[in-house]
Amino acid sequence: MTRYQIEAPVRSFTGESVGVHFQKGTGYVTDATKEGRAALEYFRRHGYGVAPADEKTEEDRVQELVTGTPAQRKPAAEEGPFDPAKQKVEDVLAYLDGADLDEATRVLDAEAAAKTPRVSITSQREEILAAKTPAAPAGDDQNGGVGQ
Fold this sequence. Notes:
44% of the residues lie in helices and 14% in strands. By secondary structure, it is α+β, with helices and mostly antiparallel strands.
Protein backbone atom coordinates (compact mmCIF):
# COMPACT_ATOMS: atom_id res chain seq x y z
CA MET A 1 0.00 0.00 0.00
CA THR A 2 1.28 3.41 -0.97
CA ARG A 3 -0.03 6.72 0.29
CA TYR A 4 -0.23 9.49 -2.30
CA GLN A 5 -0.35 13.24 -1.97
CA ILE A 6 -2.74 14.87 -4.41
CA GLU A 7 -2.36 18.52 -5.42
CA ALA A 8 -5.54 20.05 -6.87
CA PRO A 9 -5.26 22.32 -9.92
CA VAL A 10 -6.98 25.01 -7.82
CA ARG A 11 -4.61 25.47 -4.88
CA SER A 12 -7.26 27.10 -2.69
CA PHE A 13 -9.73 24.18 -3.00
CA THR A 14 -11.02 22.87 0.31
CA GLY A 15 -13.62 20.13 0.13
CA GLU A 16 -14.12 16.64 -1.24
CA SER A 17 -13.45 15.27 -4.71
CA VAL A 18 -13.90 11.61 -5.68
CA GLY A 19 -14.10 10.67 -2.01
CA VAL A 20 -10.84 12.42 -1.09
CA HIS A 21 -10.84 15.37 1.31
CA PHE A 22 -8.74 18.38 0.27
CA GLN A 23 -7.45 21.17 2.50
CA LYS A 24 -6.01 24.21 0.70
CA GLY A 25 -5.51 22.18 -2.49
CA THR A 26 -3.84 19.14 -0.91
CA GLY A 27 -5.40 15.73 -0.25
CA TYR A 28 -4.18 12.23 0.51
CA VAL A 29 -5.30 8.81 -0.73
CA THR A 30 -3.94 5.25 -0.66
CA ASP A 31 -3.97 2.59 -3.35
CA ALA A 32 -5.10 -0.05 -0.83
CA THR A 33 -8.72 -0.06 -2.00
CA LYS A 34 -10.51 -0.18 -5.34
CA GLU A 35 -11.96 3.26 -4.61
CA GLY A 36 -8.52 4.68 -3.81
CA ARG A 37 -7.04 3.32 -7.04
CA ALA A 38 -9.99 4.72 -9.03
CA ALA A 39 -9.51 8.12 -7.40
CA LEU A 40 -5.80 8.08 -8.28
CA GLU A 41 -6.61 7.38 -11.93
CA TYR A 42 -9.21 10.15 -11.93
CA PHE A 43 -6.72 12.63 -10.51
CA ARG A 44 -4.03 11.66 -13.02
CA ARG A 45 -6.44 12.02 -15.96
CA HIS A 46 -7.65 15.41 -14.79
CA GLY A 47 -4.33 17.17 -14.24
CA TYR A 48 -3.95 16.86 -10.49
CA GLY A 49 -0.44 16.49 -9.11
CA VAL A 50 -0.02 12.90 -7.89
CA ALA A 51 3.10 11.84 -5.97
CA PRO A 52 3.94 9.29 -3.29
CA ALA A 53 3.47 10.98 0.09
CA ASP A 54 6.27 11.04 2.60
CA GLU A 55 6.48 11.98 6.23
CA LYS A 56 7.41 15.62 5.59
CA THR A 57 5.21 18.34 6.94
CA GLU A 58 3.86 21.19 4.87
CA GLU A 59 6.39 23.48 6.58
CA ASP A 60 9.22 21.16 5.45
CA ARG A 61 7.96 21.29 1.87
CA VAL A 62 7.74 25.08 1.88
CA GLN A 63 11.26 25.34 3.34
CA GLU A 64 12.60 23.04 0.60
CA LEU A 65 10.92 25.15 -2.06
CA VAL A 66 12.65 28.22 -0.67
CA THR A 67 16.08 26.83 0.19
CA GLY A 68 16.29 23.42 -1.49
CA THR A 69 16.47 20.02 0.15
CA PRO A 70 19.10 19.39 2.85
CA ALA A 71 21.23 17.56 0.27
CA GLN A 72 20.98 20.53 -2.09
CA ARG A 73 21.99 22.93 0.70
CA LYS A 74 25.10 20.93 1.59
CA PRO A 75 28.19 22.92 0.58
CA ALA A 76 30.06 21.49 -2.40
CA ALA A 77 33.31 21.44 -0.40
CA GLU A 78 31.84 18.79 1.91
CA GLU A 79 30.63 16.59 -0.94
CA GLY A 80 33.95 15.89 -2.59
CA PRO A 81 34.25 14.71 -6.19
CA PHE A 82 31.41 12.87 -7.91
CA ASP A 83 31.60 9.19 -6.94
CA PRO A 84 29.89 6.89 -9.47
CA ALA A 85 29.86 4.03 -6.95
CA LYS A 86 27.33 5.98 -4.86
CA GLN A 87 25.02 6.70 -7.80
CA LYS A 88 22.49 4.87 -9.94
CA VAL A 89 23.46 4.06 -13.53
CA GLU A 90 21.07 6.67 -14.97
CA ASP A 91 22.48 9.34 -12.63
CA VAL A 92 26.06 8.52 -13.63
CA LEU A 93 25.17 8.72 -17.32
CA ALA A 94 23.33 12.02 -16.80
CA TYR A 95 26.34 13.41 -14.92
CA LEU A 96 28.67 12.30 -17.71
CA ASP A 97 26.52 14.14 -20.26
CA GLY A 98 27.36 17.43 -18.55
CA ALA A 99 30.96 16.67 -17.60
CA ASP A 100 34.01 17.87 -19.52
CA LEU A 101 36.57 15.45 -21.01
CA ASP A 102 38.83 15.33 -17.92
CA GLU A 103 35.94 14.79 -15.49
CA ALA A 104 34.31 12.17 -17.73
CA THR A 105 37.62 10.31 -17.96
CA ARG A 106 38.04 10.42 -14.16
CA VAL A 107 34.51 9.14 -13.52
CA LEU A 108 34.77 6.39 -16.15
CA ASP A 109 38.14 5.32 -14.72
CA ALA A 110 36.60 5.17 -11.22
CA GLU A 111 33.71 3.09 -12.53
CA ALA A 112 36.09 0.70 -14.32
CA ALA A 113 38.18 0.33 -11.14
CA ALA A 114 35.13 -0.47 -9.00
CA LYS A 115 34.83 -3.86 -7.34
CA THR A 116 31.92 -4.64 -9.68
CA PRO A 117 32.00 -2.21 -12.63
CA ARG A 118 28.67 -1.76 -14.38
CA VAL A 119 28.84 -2.78 -18.02
CA SER A 120 25.95 -0.45 -18.83
CA ILE A 121 28.37 2.43 -18.10
CA THR A 122 31.78 1.03 -19.03
CA SER A 123 30.58 -0.26 -22.42
CA GLN A 124 29.82 3.34 -23.42
CA ARG A 125 33.30 4.69 -22.51
CA GLU A 126 34.62 5.24 -26.03
CA GLU A 127 31.39 6.83 -27.23
CA ILE A 128 31.20 9.17 -24.22
CA LEU A 129 34.82 10.25 -24.49
CA ALA A 130 34.62 10.67 -28.27
CA ALA A 131 31.70 13.06 -27.82
CA LYS A 132 33.80 15.12 -25.37
CA THR A 133 36.96 15.22 -27.52
CA PRO A 134 37.28 18.45 -29.51
CA ALA A 135 37.07 17.87 -33.26
CA ALA A 136 40.15 18.60 -35.34
CA PRO A 137 39.93 21.84 -37.38
CA ALA A 138 38.67 21.40 -40.94
CA GLY A 139 41.40 20.66 -43.45
CA ASP A 140 43.60 18.77 -40.99
CA ASP A 141 44.69 15.33 -42.08
CA GLN A 142 47.48 12.95 -41.21
CA ASN A 143 49.98 15.05 -43.18
CA GLY A 144 49.50 18.10 -41.02
CA GLY A 145 47.22 19.78 -43.55
CA VAL A 146 49.76 19.55 -46.37
CA GLY A 147 48.48 18.06 -49.64
CA GLN A 148 50.18 15.08 -51.25
